[in-house]
Specification:
Elements lengths: L3 E7 L4 E5 L2 E12 L6 E10 L15 E14 L5 E13 L19 E2 L7
Parallel strand pairs: 4-6
Antiparallel strand pairs: 1-3, 1-5, 2-3, 3-4, 5-6, 6-7
Length: 124
């Protein structure tokens, strides 16, 4: 089973897109790794599929702390300069947002609420 958890901040506001007959909420998360001179940020493109997930978009704003759990994949693409690049994509199954009592400043400790299980409406 491929299940990954990332905690970080959104790099931009989430976007709602229509793909065929369904809707998609997409957003990038920057998750820090390492410390001091070795600190770096890993960027993951996240997507949440389904019409009933669109309501989450209002809470997924640039700079917001979020915890996501889902299936990780790597995609390869060619940039404008013709170079082959790779990016990480996460198909999100669960989302955890900070509680209302938690400040959203950059120095706050992450205090995600209980992740919402996005598969509750699947009958199997």
């Amino acid at each position: 089973m491929n299940s990954c958890t990332f905690m970080g901040r959104l790099g931009r506001d989430s976007e709602i897109k229509e793909v065929g007959d369904t809707k998609l909420v997409s957003f990038p998360i920057g998750s820090d790794t390492g410390y001091g001179k070795n600190k770096s940020t890993v960027w993951v493109d996240c997507s949440i599929w389904g019409e009933n997930r669109v309501g989450l978009a209002e809470y997924l704003k640039k700079g917001s702390q979020v915890t996501v759990i889902g299936e990780l994949s790597e995609r390869e693409y060619t940039n404008k300069e013709g170079e082959t690049k790779k990016s990480l994509s996460l198909r999100v199954n669960q989302v955890g947002l900070p509680s209302k009592n938690d400040s959203s400043g950059p120095s706050s400790s992450p205090a995600p609420s209980k992740p919402a299980n996005l598969d509750d409406d699947i009958p199997f």
